Amino acid sequence: MNAPVGTSEAARRTWRAASFIFALSVAFASAALVAPVHAGWGLYALDVALAVAGFVVTRMLLAARGGIGGHTAVLARIVLCSVPPLVLVCGVALLAGLFLLPPADLRNQAWTGLWSAFGLSGGELLKQGWPQATGNELLWHGFILGVAAQLTLGWGAVLLTLRALKAERWIGAVLILGMAGALAARLVLEGRGADPHLFYLAAPRAGLFLIGAFVAVVSWQVRPRQPNESPDPLLWPGRLALPFWLWLWPLLLLPRMVLARPLGGWEVASVLVAAAAVAVLTEIAVTGPLRRRLEGRPLRALVVCGLLLAGLAVASAGLFAADGLPGRASDAVRVEETSAQVRPPLQAACHTEGVQIPSAANCTVPTGQTADVVLWGNSHGSHLSPAVLEWAAGRGLAVRQATKSGCLPLVGTGSGLIDDGCARFNRAAVEAWGGVRPDLILIGAGWTVVVERTPGDDKAQLAALDRELRVALTLLRARVGPETRIVLIGTTPDYSFAPAVCHARRAFLRLDTARCDDAVPANAALMAEADARLARIATESPGVFLFRPSTALCDRGTCRTRGAGGVWYTDQSHMTEAGGRAQTAALSAVLDQMVAYR
Hints:
This protein is of the alpha/beta class. It has 27 helices and 12 strands. The protein has helices at residues 9-34, 36-39, 45-63, 68-100, 103-117, 121-128, 130-136, 143-164, 171-191, 202-218, 236-259, 265-294, 298-321, 331-339, 347-350, 360-363, 379-382, 385-393, 420-436, 447-453, 458-480, 499-508, 514-517, 524-540, 550-553, 577-581, 584-597, and strands at residues 351-352, 364-365, 373-377, 399-404, 440-444, 485-489, 518-519, 544-547, 554-555, 558-560, 562-563, 566-567. Strands 1, 2, 3, 4, 5, 6 and 8 form a 7-stranded mixed sheet that branches. A 3-stranded antiparallel sheet has the order 7-10-9. The radius of gyration is 27 Å and the shape is globular.
């Protein structure tokens, strides 16, 4: 933390307090990395760290003189503290990946490293979703530096413009408007069902940064520390906080990725000690010397840091373009990685992110026929399309799929389990099924995935799911009539790791892969509770049946993640085409029983 030092003891206390708050916020955020289940709330401390950054940046900018030249000097001091440790950590992570990660895995790390060099990794991570990013991305945590960089550059440009226009008196008003806009952006995202932890972008995180800036504007100013002035030792916690944060995540995640299990207490303690030691070493051997050599030479500092980022970008782009250097891995490992990308057959055309249901013309097999069987829900429902298509083809029935990402098949938004767009999609689907009146409707979803990510107690959310699903089934029955049979698809087992990626990693390192191929699901307890509720709903609702994927995938408490047909999972919870096909026999037994019942 490159903090100024004032002429008064009061000023020194202010900067020491800022340094302490920054270090404390990083400590809370680090606790969330170490124990996400028990301290996941700690990631909200990143907003506090951004507030301190807003305070420090604004104080430095206000103290700067000389227009663009003064702002350039401030920017140089900021990048000297942040860019060298970021590039060092990213470079070491990619170098370690050359020896420890299979090709596709390294290619993904390089892609994130490339965007990290531009400070824009958040947008790419947002596409992956929270479990995928935090389970596989060694450079995931660097997104917050990109956010801070965007906010710093944006606010610096605004402040420079106001000064150029001789409108310094409007700085406070502009900050208030900015805080209101950031709050509005956050409320809009929350209203659309976005998880606060997924705020990888600058706009919804700008609020506390601007609050810190506002505090800096309305309080007294201090002069910046001179280049040759000896540093205050009480500012060291703030200086070490950033390199500690940068080192901690890859040191935690890489062993988890290789071992395919959570780390034990002593292992975590060892990682914390190692991260602290490497952070001190980074400050002493890398960041400190560069800062002492280049501080006071802003243009040279910016050029050096720019070259460091360019080197990271070129190295990352090279690894990405080379597909992670596949020659490092055996044919079996490369086949494993390729097989994990084969999704169910109707996924591309009939699984949507929007609110319009996919058209019957594109999503009915065979084409041109009226659907006898409908597959409705979210991506976990689409898992079964290979099994449904095989069963239906043997009986001369046409199948139509209409599924939407992250959308439980509910019609009301009161419980918070679905957003308005999802509700519109489902209401349109119910009306469409009422027009078709198919013989059979299969309803499947990632029941526990949505429950786990929805704020609140899981048991309370399951109770809400029970109520809302009964409402949806009542509405559906009213539209399709009493003759249509309905099959609820139970919970798909999911894991704290991606089974196929786990298998490829351990096979690449010539380690035993059994722990990846047959494991206890991460959602085992919640899966049992959710399926029990679905079973009660099926029992109490005429013409409704239940199929449990666990009957095909699990035995004696553990579940298989692959079979003779290949890899069954593409990530922690989503299945490949082979995974859907592996459930054909078990699903056919339920559907045949349903037909016989009718």
